[in-house]
């Protein structure tokens, strides 16, 4: 635990020093939200205010930006030989990855706060109770942890920082194939099948239902997808790290 906390502090300090990455992780989701609300929102018909509809999708999109940064940070450590130095110390590989993952969670929390704050200025009016807010943020936290551990695994196997950014590209692309920006019912049948059978759509739909005080129909599915992905990603990334670092 002490080693993990030390590595978390190290990763947070690195994030603070890498201001351009930190700023982009916050600014890009805000710009995306402004783009969809002000440019495309008027042309998209919805039974509710479009900003109320799109904010949950933007919050999930934030995790993709944060996860890509995590993959690049882990790959940078692997490339520069920092991991070789850590191997000479009495610490576990688990703590090294934990530092990167929890720093990713901190970056995502900051980005989420910024998105919600700007969304309120743009007319976002959630009707959720305090309990619904807690449940929505808890589900987002679970999903962020799952995606961050998956990104850490990508960072371990990437040959360079550039390769890690390419591996993380699909984390930014998949939300566009979900219900983040338009209802699934408006998609062609073949694309609707893709959208309905992936983890992001139930997560977005559940967060949207919590924030807008609507019936939650996919909560258990979202929990199963996020929890299952977290377990698989954690086991895969720690196994990879241990295997590669012993070479």
TrEMBL record:
The keyword Coiled coil does not apply. It comes from the Bacteria. The chain crosses the membrane at residues 21-41, 53-75, 96-124, 130-152, 164-185, 220-241. It holds the Pfam family ABC2_membrane. Coiled coil: none annotated. Keywords: Antibiotic resistance, Cell membrane, Membrane, Transmembrane, Transmembrane helix, Transport. It is a multi-pass membrane protein. It is found in: Cell membrane; Membrane. Residues 20-244 form the ABC transmembrane type-2 domain. Belongs to the ABC-2 integral membrane protein family. This is Transport permease protein.
């Amino acid at each position: 635990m002490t080693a993990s906390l030390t590595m978390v502090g190290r990763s947070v300090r690195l994030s603070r020093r890498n201001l351009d990455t930190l700023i982009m992780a916050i600014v890009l989701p805000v710009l995306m939200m402004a783009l969809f609300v002000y440019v495309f929102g008027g042309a998209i018909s919805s039974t509710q205010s479009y900003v109320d509809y799109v904010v949950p999708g933007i919050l999930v999109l934030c995790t993709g930006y944060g996860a890509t940064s995590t993959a690049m940070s882990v790959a940078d450590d692997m490339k520069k030989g920092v991991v070789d130095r850590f191997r000479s110390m009495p610490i576990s590989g688990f703590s090294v990855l934990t530092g990167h993952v929890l720093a990713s969670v901190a970056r995502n929390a900051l980005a989420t706060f910024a998105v919600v704050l700007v969304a309120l200025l743009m007319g976002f009016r959630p009707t959720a109770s305090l309990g619904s807010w807690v449940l929505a943020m808890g589900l987002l936290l679970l999903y962020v942890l799952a995606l961050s551990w998956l990104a850490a695994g990508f960072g371990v196997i990437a040959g360079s920082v550039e390769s890690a950014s390419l591996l993380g590209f699909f984390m930014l692309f998949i939300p566009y194939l979900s219900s983040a920006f338009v209802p699934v019912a408006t998609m062609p049948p073949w694309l609707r099948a893709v959208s309905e059978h992936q983890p992001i759509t139930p997560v977005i739909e559940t967060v949207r239902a919590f924030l807008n005080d609507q019936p939650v129909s996919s909560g258990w599915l979202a929990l199963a997808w996020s929890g299952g992905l977290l377990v698989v990603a954690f086991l895969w990334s720690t196994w990879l790290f241990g295997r590669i670092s012993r070479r």
